Amino acid sequence: MNKKAKKIILLSISMLFAGCVATQSPKPTPTTPPKTNGVPIRMTDYGYPPQNYKTTIKNYFANKIRRPEMASFVFSKPHRAYKRDGLAYGGNIVWKGWLVDVSIATQSRSGRLQTPKPYMVLFRGSTIVEDILGRHHQLITRVGD
Amino acid sequence: MANFNTHFVVAAGASAILSGTMLSMEVIEPNQAVMAFAIGTFGGLMPDIDSDNSKAISVGFTVISLLITILLVFVKSSTYSLIEMLIMGGVVFSVIRFGFIEIFRKISKHRGMFHSIPVALIWGVGTTILVHIFFGLNELISWVYGFMMSFGYIVHLILDEIYSVDLGNRRMKKSAGTALKFFKLKSSTDKIQNLLIYLTLIALFMIAPDTSLIREALLSQEAWINFKDILLPYDGRWFFH
Which residue ranges make up each domain of chain A? Predict the structure, then answer.
């Protein structure tokens, strides 16, 4: 085989292999999660933040605390959070939603204003599911916004 | 040394006063006060579970076995059938109530470290963690229940010390000082036992829930003012409010 023929064969083989090399696929266009009213879609498990939560909380505690007419409330903004059941009941996530921290100052039975008590109020939608005394609980996890 | 009935009556009386006080101070609700009373009374019987033939060891192990069995039934209720739960419950109850009790009898010594302040605290903090993490109760109520357990336990230890004074002969009995103690360092086994007890106590405190609410409710300046508020009629009128 002459040199010219050899060159042609080598060239065609190398072209053939070159054709097998995977070309880089086009870069995926960065996809931003669609937003629903300012809430990323992956967070929609938690539902929408509660509406009129201050009034809802005041009405709720009107039946729960003593001397509610004298009570004063301080509210935080709603945060996403979830709660696990106690380990005795399986420890599964039983609630996902919005949590509002509230401080409620009431009067003692002698009329003295007491140090505010902290509560965590758990919402599903705009409905209160539960209230928990305290600022934290080992079964409640707050989710960063 | 006081007998079972004396310990029971004194622990129940002291727990009733303390839970009633916390109820009046609006620290707890009526249903929680009943539970606090029961836990305090139970705590008052606990130190004598190291006594091989006492009623306390039978009562204590029966209650603990039942609690653990009920916990397991709760955990498995969503997956196990009734028959499976019945078999599991029976086995677990029997193993703890009749098996562990024998092991415990062999390794424990009456008036050993079970009659001590750090073990009273271990029972209290352990109760707090159990009701907080297992039953999901809030930090304040969890600590109230833990506090009641330790309180009942310490009432028992104090009563034992009181009974170690022989008022007739005006002398101290041999048992004096063996109940209300912080440590016992007679032998090398005692030293190891003490070390383990204090390490357990530290570990439990590290995983226990936050104490700010209970401190505010029972140990703060405001708690003292609240107590004074409820001690006498605030409006000066007795029985006619």
Answer: 39-143
